[in-house]
Amino acid sequence: QVQLSESGGRLVQTGGSLRLSCTVSGLRFRLYSMGWFRRTQVNGREFVAAMSYRDGSRKYADSVKGRFTISRDNDKNTVFLQMDNLKPEDTGLYSCASTGYYNDLTSAYRYDHWGQGTQVTVSP
Question: How far apart are CA 32 and CA 97, in angstroms?
């Protein structure tokens, strides 16, 4: 079975930083693109960041561009989301997801497997 497990979410003050991790098992990690999505009180689920397995290209939502960085360690089957200069509107449940596709990665419809999420709360 495929499993994705997120960690690193916690309460942090505005302007602070967090690094989320997502470990993956049950698939050939190097052949899967990875994405981060979040669920907020005002948005059911929105795209945050993604990284293609094919060329390593990255894509970010406009709201996080310049503040968040997605990366991966293929030897550890892990994808990371470094979050800097956090804002209250970043509060939400952050989930990682995997897909065999390498394009159109901003769409949740492309993803096959999802983690259960880790909660990030940014206090004003």
Answer: 10
* pLDDT tens-digit series, residues 72-124: 999 999 999 999 999 999 999 999 999 999 999 999 999 999 999 999 999 99
The two three-digit tokens of residue 115, written as one number: 């983690």
Residue type, 47: F
Give the separation between CA 7 and CA 21, rounded to whole angstroms: 5
For the record, the structure tokens of 28 come out as: 């050939």
Strands 58-60 and 118-123, bridge-based pairing: unpaired
User: How far, in Å, CA of 20 to CA of 9, rounded?
Assistant: 6
The residues near 87 (Cβ < 8 Å, ≥ 6 apart) are 14, 122
Tell me which amino acid residue 17 is: S
Cα 12 from Cα 112, distance rounded (Å): 30
Query: What pLDDT, on the 0 to 100 scale, is given for residue 43?
Result: 85
